[in-house]
Queue: 2 jobs
Job 1
Amino acid sequence: MTSIVALAYLFSGVCFIMALRGLASPVSARQGNTFGIVGMAVAIVTTFCLVEASSLWFIAIAIALGGGIGAVVARNIKMTALPQLVAAFHSLVGLAAVLVAGAAFSNPDAYNIGSAGKIHLSSLIEMGLGVAIGAITFSGSLVAFAKLQGLVTGKPLTFPMQHQFNLALGILTLVMVVGLILTQSPYAFWAIVGITFLLGFLLILPIGGADMPVVISMLNSYSGWAAAATGFTLENPLLIITGALVGASGAILSYIMCKGMNRSIFNVILGGFGSDSGAASAGAGTGDRSVKIGSAEDAAFILKNAASVVIVPGYGMAVAQAQHALREMADQLKKAGVQVRYAIHPVAGRMPGHMNVLLAEANVPYDEVLELDEINRDFGQTDVAYVIGANDVTNPAAKTDPNSPIFGMPILDVEKAKTVLFIKRSMATGYAGVENELFYRPNTMMLFGDAKHMCENIVKALES
Amino acid sequence: MSVGDLASTLSNLAAEQQKLADLAKSLAAQAAQAMATQGEAAGTHSFFITGLTVFVLACFVGYYVVWRVTPALHSPLMAVTNAVSSVIIVGALLAAGPIEMTASKWMGLGAVVLASINIFGGFIVTQRMLAMYKKKSDGGGPKAK
């Protein structure tokens, strides 16, 4: 019996690996998702066999309830709200990990890890760590959700002695874990939960909105480590395998995002970016220089007469929900014989791959959407770079100005295109608070207005 | 020797036998316990090493598999890893298993609900995203919205 269960769990683990493997290409990705679903179904059904038959009703109701909520939310969510959804889901994994650890602590017999007050040492250590990671994931993801949803300001919230306070909380957590190991007291256990809840809030609050791609990836990673720690506590290899896969995935995504901003993970986690650095370089771009302002008709004329156009979308496109209007514009241009491609910066948007999903939603074929490395060399031969809702990721100061806070960040070389069309709502600086040199270049034309309306107006002008 | 004496000796013997039996029983129980704790200690120890082996190998598998994921699919990657990490439901089910309505069972049921939201939500939203990715040759025909 137990070996059958173990084999079924192994099968699930392999299915999960195949699910991630499928994402190597959009062609195999759907099949990969099916693997994931099969793996999960096998894991759940197998575990049913270990449960008292009379409890199955309760459990079935619980699964139906949760599954119903999840299905309704997932079917109705707008693709622009995806980052919030993912953050909310991460918080649920964190809370579930806390509850499972709590259940294991108060009824260790159910898991064969000792009896109440006499839990094995290694299980206690893993339980303490698991519950701490779970609680941080939970409250941290809640803050990330609130920031992405606009419930809390996206600006970094800082207070004096913040890092010292967080460090003190971290040390206190460790003390409580030692206390838990020595006394097995429920107070120590719940104290760990309380302290790490608070720590999760305080860790994510000071991190600004545009750093959310890193934060979400990091929390993704944490939710994996929490699952792995639970796997150690419950002596369940499937949880360990899955937790490690998810943890590794989140860690790699965090690394890619950090590299995309040329910042270390510590720099992001310690937060406060964008609040104090803006003033330093503001002096470089003072008022008297003029910018060239164009209308939708001017833009339509330039675009129609171009041979190649590269569109550079950013978070602004998501905010304005401009992806459908943008694709209409691209269709018009393609009809006129213009080559249209899209260039995506790794940190564009609020989560990894955010822009790709939005463009896919608007029916843009994925082979027209290119990554930074693939397209950056082509800007020199491009007639028009059409920047919509992006700013910092195109700022040449990242290459030329060593004093700039974004110096060293890889950017899209839109400046090399013959003409740059820049859609912005105002002259305000981007997230990093840095003036963009590009606005004042003679080959740049600013198109002021809402991204969606601007695209629609250009479509109208193209049609006429 | 009277019948009464015989009876009392017999009852004494019986009592002694009972005592000895109890002693033997408690000794056996002690031995069993000693064996069990030893076995458990050895068991948990070996599980930790086994678990660590599995963990480290899975980290490497994850590392190589995830690096091969195309950047265009990073959002579905997050959604699907989120769904998959809800396999923690396995632990929740074990907690919700016993018949008695204990605090542990309620926590288990709560975790089952949360994890199910994630499992269904995560897989469905991944499916939705992946269904949108089309190649140029697919025509990318006009779809509602």
Note: Residues 139-145 of chain B have pLDDT under 50 and may be disordered.
Job 2
Amino acid sequence: MRHAIHALALLLSTGAIAAEPLPGKALFDRWCAECHAPGHGHPGTQQLERLRGASLAVLETRPDLNAALIRYVVRSGQNAMPPYRPSEISDAALDQIAQYLGRNQPAPGKRRR
Amino acid sequence: MTPNILPPGLSEKDFNDALAEFRRIVGDQYVFTGDALSAYRDPYSLEDDAKFSTPAAVAPDSAEQVQAVVKVANQYGVPLWTISAGKNHGYGGAAPRMAGTVVLDLARMNRILEINVDSGYALLEPGVTYFDLYRHLQEKNLKLWLDVPDPGWGSVVGNALERGIGYTPYGDHFMMQCGMEVVLANGDVMRTGMGAMPKSNAWQLFKYGYGPYADGIFTQSNYGIVTKMGIWLMPEPPGYRPYMISFQREEDLEQVIEVLRPLKVNNIIQNAATLRSLLLVAGINATRSQYHSGPGPIPDSAAKKIMADQDIGMWNFYGALYGPPPLMDVLWSITRDAFASVPGARFFTPEERRHENDVLKHRAMTMRGVPRLTEYSFVNWVGGGGHIGFSPVSPINGKEAMQQYIMVRDRLAQYGFDYLSVFAIGWRELHHVIELIFDRRDPEEKRKAYEVFGIMVREAAEAGYGEYRTHISFMDQVAKTYSWNDHAQLRFQQTLKDALDPKGILSPGKQGIWPARYRQGG
């Protein structure tokens, strides 16, 4: 209990409740960020900018990624990107990454508009 | 479930029984079949995926589980293809040489078992990647450096076993390896070097132990499964200065290599430095279509424009100095004076490079052992991301480097491919690593790449240049080029194979070494 209160106080003090990262964020940082982080030196970001333009180059800010697409590309690879095996990124970890990258999608109600 | 392919000679029932045994050993969730195998293919293969397809993958978590899996494989005659991180890209990735081979995937065995800062070594399991080890050293604030290849996602153990290279003074990875634990084909497990003595505390300190030195036969081989390995790590030096020297003319290659040889042989150049071709450097930040839209290789006019845009040369030497500042001062003055004899040579520190994503700024990290993936950008040179490494070895000799360059450049040009290469400077030799970049979505490009690759292997061998490593598609062809005295070495390798692995279950066809059961069957 004391730990919970402490953690809550910490979150309140940093104003971080709303910004608490999804568990997929850490997995993304571990497995994907070397190629897909924003800025120079990241081959995935660089190539996506060439192919799709600057607004769709950085995976973490894209509004159009859905979980099924992410699962497919990670397991099958695409263009220069090699596939990742379930021994490296488990299905559960991949679901979390997909959830994290899919979080910017508009809610279904909004999309129907 | 019916697998789409079976190991050669195995009935479906026997195979399914073996899979059930594998599941009992490693757990249901770590035996992969069907759709879960999509990542066990070579994404950059030049041939049909079916030639290298696997019916299942098994991912054990410990040496004991590896032993148990090997015993079952022996009992049923199931061939196993061992991978660690599975990132042997350009050489086959995670895919087995022979269709029907089960992949033994060691990625879950990713424990860092020991780091010794005073003596400068690590004891690792094969699933530990360069990123894993680097993050561990950073988190613990340990003053040791790694030596990394260009992409950091690979296995430290796997790369040393493939005799890969990096760019610090510890760039020859197998030379820095010390002590192994190996599961043999009969399920026995042994430790090499000092590890063979039960109470020795020098397993990671003295490579050779007593009697015949065994570690070498477990590299680029199919004689055993390495489950632990020692690797020496470089103590963080008191000073570090990376640099780049650019050379403007194609023909400078000969003189540059002649200047290099005495500097390297006398250890004035301390690290595993590299001389990189124009387009390999350019490909980190640019693509071919920005400079040339037609067929055929990049014309000279476009090459000149790339040189001007990126402020690079036809050849670009990346090296570094390590040690106390007075030592670096002396080594630099000798190095600079030697290369200044090449007309038009230009010298740079990272601070002097004007582009934010300049390759020297990136190499300043790799030459101090920081793993990255930045360099992987060059595989996008033509789009589609396909690449395969062709890597003949030669003396550090200007005329021979020039001869190799012209031979490869012209053959690639004939087939419409550009020349992207790195000359990696070893202790006494050059690894001339050519990256053949193709669009993997284009079957005709793949066909041409396959054809020209085979021609280059043959022509290089006729001129006396052998590959140090190759893709699974070409393992047999390259093995046959090492043919002195009626293939005496390959016969010796087969003799060892038959003695150590009589049932032929370990990585059949690896480096052209086939067990008797598949040799006789053709």
Note: The longest helix of chain B spans residues 443-462.
